[in-house]
Design brief:
The protein is α/β, with parallel strands linked by helices and about 425 residues long. The protein has 2 domains: about 240 residues, Thiamin diphosphate (ThDP)-binding fold, Pyr/PP domains (Rossmann fold); about 160 residues, Thiamin diphosphate (ThDP)-binding fold, Pyr/PP domains (Rossmann fold, 3-Layer(aba) Sandwich), CATH 3.40.50. The chain is about 35% helix and about 20% strand. Strands 2-1-3-4-6-5-9 form a 7-stranded mixed sheet, sandwiched between helices. Strands 13-12-14-15-19-18 form a 6-stranded parallel sheet, with helices on both faces. Strands 8-7-10 form a 3-stranded parallel sheet, with no helix packed on it. α3 runs parallel beside α5. The mean pLDDT is about 95.
């Protein structure tokens, strides 16, 4: 069997959902797994993160340049955490045979501090399950880097035994600093995982990376096993990532993650915020949701504590569509990068309540003005109401059977600022 066939078989065995945006060299892999086509790569990853929150493993099959569109939720997921495994299958094109660049996806491993595996023709199947287990062990997205050489090679077929584990979301009481600290501690333990991985085989010089020839072979390309530092000659496809990253050291041990209790306070909506009527209805109905960046992220903190996760700007729509079914987002975040996901959700008629807080500005960064999203959403037939239209809000704030967009219009009071409240553990 060719590598692409072995990989497709392993992906189907190890996952509950597969998403793809076609492109060389992974188009055939997406087709063989019957992966769901998505409007763009960012939305595909956000769908996968939503699946993760509902204990479903998900794979995102994309090409190298498509990975760029995933950067924000990819890095956010490292700090936020996840539940079930999410793996990006990144198709690299080192010779630019069918791509506009020869981008090397392995560098995202360093940037996002995620495990990256590059299989050879003997480890195609086992690498898939290893990536999912690493995703769950380290509570972040993992990556499998593929090149045409391994996809087209004759590969060893192997029976993959799926072995699900559970990751962890950042604790609700951790501050942003605490989330980063906890994620960094997990990253530190990732180096031992690489050192012990059976995907690496040692038999002297030279060292082959993935399908590149060599007496020794390594499959865990980020972080690299410590033993790689002792090898002089490295063969790899693409840039000299492994050669240049030999000897990379794990971060120093981290302190206990900072919690609101340690800091002594939390922040919530402005005392006179006109959207409190909306938030109180959501709280009254215990409508768990995915929060976006901006003011909507405050739905995760007291007194509401309805948000179970936040994966960055514009991410709440697609994540919620595969998990809670309720997304809270601001008008700027919607236009920034959420609208593509909303289009995909409507095309697939996914049950989602998308609540847009429209204040006409970017409230967290200085109240710079933003565009009115209403003229660009006529196709969604949104319900538009004022913050004080409690009767309408009570009618529309409910779990739908199809996508529903509610735009709640209001103005941030002049001179107001987010309320700082003493934290008391109840």
């Amino acid at each position: 069997m060719k590598g692409v066939d072995v990989l497709a078989e392993a992906l189907c065995a190890c996952t509950d959902r597969q998403y793809t945006v076609p492109g060389f060299p992974i188009t055939d892999l997406g087709a063989l797994t019957h992966a769901e086509m998505v409007a763009n790569e960012k939305t595909a990853l956000e769908y996968a993160l939503g699946d993760s929150l509902c204990h479903r493993r998900a794979a995102v099959i994309i090409k190298n340049v498509g990975l760029n569109a995933c950067a924000d939720p990819l890095l956010q997921a490292t700090a936020q955490g996840l539940v079930s495994g999410v793996v990006i299958i990144a198709g690299d094109d080192p010779e630019a045979l069918g791509s506009q660049t020869a981008q090397d996806s392995r560098y995202y491993g360093e940037l996002a501090e995620i495990p990256v595996i590059e299989p050879d023709e003997t480890t195609c199947a086992s690498s898939v399950e290893a990536a999912f287990q690493a995703s769950e062990q380290f509570s972040r997205v993992a990556m499998v880097r593929l090149t045409p050489y391994v996809l087209d090679a004759e590969a060893e077929r192997d029976i993959v035994r799926r072995d699900d584990h559970t990751g962890r979301l950042s604790h609700r009481t951790w501050t942003m600093n605490g989330r980063v600290t906890a994620a960094e501690e997990l990253y530190r333990t990732m180096f031992d995982w690489s050192d012990r991985s059976p995907l690496n085989r040692w038999a002297g010089e030279p060292l082959g990376v993935g399908p590149a020839p060599g007496s020794s072979r390594i499959g865990t390309v980020h972080p690299l096993p410590a033993r790689a530092a002792t090898v002089q000659t490295v063969h790899e496809y693409g840039r000299t990532f492994v050669r240049d990253h030999r000897g990379l050291q794990p971060p120093v041990p981290q302190k206990r993650p900072e919690a609101m209790e340690d800091r002594g306070y939390y922040k919530t909506f402005c005392a006179n915020c006109p959207w409190k009527t909306l938030l109180n209805i959501l709280k009254e109905r215990d409508m768990q949701m995915i929060c976006d960046a901006g003011c909507s992220v405050l739905g995760m903190t007291p007194p509401y504590e309805l948000g179970i996760a936040s994966y960055g700007m514009g991410a709440s729509i697609a994540v919620a569509a595969r998990s809670t079914g309720v997304a809270l987002i601001g008008d700027y975040a919607l236009l920034h990068s959420g609208i593509n996901a909303l289009i995909d959700v409507y095309e697939k008629c996914l049950p989602l309540l998308c609540v847009v807080m429209k204040n006409g500005c970017t409230a967290m960064t200085g109240r710079q003005p933003t565009y009115d999203p209403v003229p660009y959403l006529s196709w969604a037939q949104p319900v538009v109401c004022r913050t004080d239209d409690e009767q309408i809000l009570r009618q529309v704030i409910r779990r739908p059977d199809a996508p529903v967009t509610v735009i709640v219009e209001g103005e941030c009071p002049e001179g107001s600022s987010h309320e700082t409240v003493e934290y008391r553990d109840l």
